[in-house]
Amino acid sequence: MAAATTATPMPAAERGAEVFVEVTPSTVQAGDQVDIRANCNGNNRGASVRSDAFGRAELRPENGLLVGTATVPDRKPPGTFDVILTCRDNSTASTTLTVVNMSKATRGPATGGGGTAGGTIDPLVLTGGLGAVAVGASVALLVRHRRGTGSSS
Contacts for 53-61 with beta carbons within 8 Å, 24 or more apart? Predict the structure, then answer.
């Protein structure tokens, strides 16, 4: 019985024969940027990718791979788009990119300047309110004082 041997797989960049393309993130908000990583036979020359999601982007050799970035336009409608790598030797690979168009948070509705509305307090309103409280307290003390002196006679 022969002993089993295990081959250690080499990273894709070292294999040379594998052609691939990756887009990160694979789902992106319209207006955001994606990172592109690819492998062509050799990786010593650049390559290009094309997609209806962002147009064309050039990839450059870096650390044994081909890398680049692309930006999805703000007004790109949502959908799933092919991303196609074309190497200098005309070999190709593809992946997909999903574009979403989620609404971004907005300010709340303008419903008037009610008592719970944020912001600063007008000094005139503050002074008037404090004055009204002071007058009310003075009247209450005066009425109480008169009731107290009138009942002891």
Answer: 53/81, 53/83, 53/97, 53/99, 54/97, 59/85
- Residue spans per domain, the chain: 12-100
CATH of 12-100, one of 3.40.50.1000, 3.10.28.10, 3.90.950.10, 2.60.40.1930: 2.60.40.1930
Q: For position 120, what pLDDT does the model report?
A: 64
CB count, 10 Å around CB of 59? Answer: 25
C-alpha distances out from residue 96 to 47, 56, 92, 113, Å:
18, 14, 14, 49
HSE of 57, CA atoms in CB hemisphere, 13 A? 25
pLDDT 10s digits, 39-96: 998 778 899 999 999 999 999 999 889 999 999 999 999 999 999 999 998 999 999 9
Query: What 8-state DSSP symbol labels residue 120?
Result: P
